[in-house]
Amino acid sequence: MADSRRYRVGYALLPKKQQSFIQDSLVSLCRDRGIDLVPIDLRRPLIDQGPFDCLLHKLYGDDWSRQLDDFRRYYPDATVIDSPESISRLHNRISMLQVRIHVVVSVVAARFGIPKQIVIYDKETLSDSRSWDLLKFPVIAKPLIADGSAKSHKMSLIFNHDGLDKLKPPIVLQEFVNHGGVIFKVYVVGDYVQCVKRKSLPDVIPGSISSESSMPFSQVSNITTPQRNNDDDDDDDMMQLDGTEMPPQSFVVDLARGLRSATKLHLFNFDVIRDSTRENKYLVIDINYFPGYAKMPGYERVLIDFLWDVVSERKRTTVDQMAVAAVTTTAAGGNRPAAAAVGVEENGVSPRQQVMLGCEDEAVRNIAVTNSGCSTSTDNCIDGEDQKEKSPILQV
Questions:
Q1: H/E element, 116
Q2: Alpha-carbon distance 81 to 188, whole Å?
Q3: Residues 127 and 182 in one domain
Q4: pLDDT tens, residue by residue, 67-125
Q5: Nearest residue to 345 via CA among 167, 81, 19
Q6: Polar residues bias located where (predicted)?
Q7: 81, 113, 132 - which closes a domain
Q8: How many domains is the chain partitioned into structurally?
Q9: Is residue 286 part of a domain?
């Protein structure tokens, strides 16, 4: 018999995010599948607005985390996507990319890594050339905190030492890698993976860049190189995109599932570039939680299928737990606690979706840079709360 029950999926999003994500087409298709999308009133306590079968959110802060904790205690069967603990790791551009050391890709035709990068916490370290002498110019300067604010998106391309003087720590310096002016954005929605091509920064040819010591990203596209001049137009960009070969699909899916398991996230995307100087070498340069899915072709049906899997899996798990409880109670005289249902998600990842994790063949060394030089460090993660006490970390 067909399932006639309706499922409630709450969503807590800022107005701008809500406007782009909650389209009429998504609401209508969800309704047809028996899923009602319910907006969370941010002026009221979350716990008073349940119950929900599933809760989607992209809000931050201590108060919201406390509300989520209260909600999960009061409604333990509801699925919250995703946990604040997992999301917060992406708010630091160092800890964000360190998840890649836990991912192994089985596709031998392609390799992946991250660009060399260093985090600078103060002006003194920035002025000490020994802190960044292992990086080659140009470098990309990014704010350390990646919380989705306008400030976190202010990035610059630094061409020489003079450009460093304009920077305000804490910042991340990431070595720029020529990649043909094309970036691959990989969208992940549960088990679903889609890779699309987008225009990126043009390649930088030594000796052909402008006399500027630094340049905001918004102006980098105006760089004149032998491959690009100021008369280029959108048609040239489209031809460049059309002529760019996509990464192997098996590699993209393998990498996406590995990152999903390492981050313990269901909704995210990541940016990948292909190193123009090394054959089949891909670099992960950014990971974003709950990205702009409306930019992904056919996002509505992808999200609906994902939400249906979540609520129907929740229903199956509840039925399985009830069945186990009934059998256990009968066998033990009614007082024995029910056993855990097989297949229940742990830390947001179903056992059937977990992939084998490990270290990539190309080792990642973490080097703590101090004023006296470099020393080996075993510190693998930088927490936002104690970042001021940390020494800069260089990954090579």
A1: none
A2: 13
A3: yes
A4: 999 999 999 999 999 999 999 999 988 888 888 767 767 666 678 899 999 999 998 88
A5: 81
A6: 212-228
A7: 81
A8: 2
A9: yes
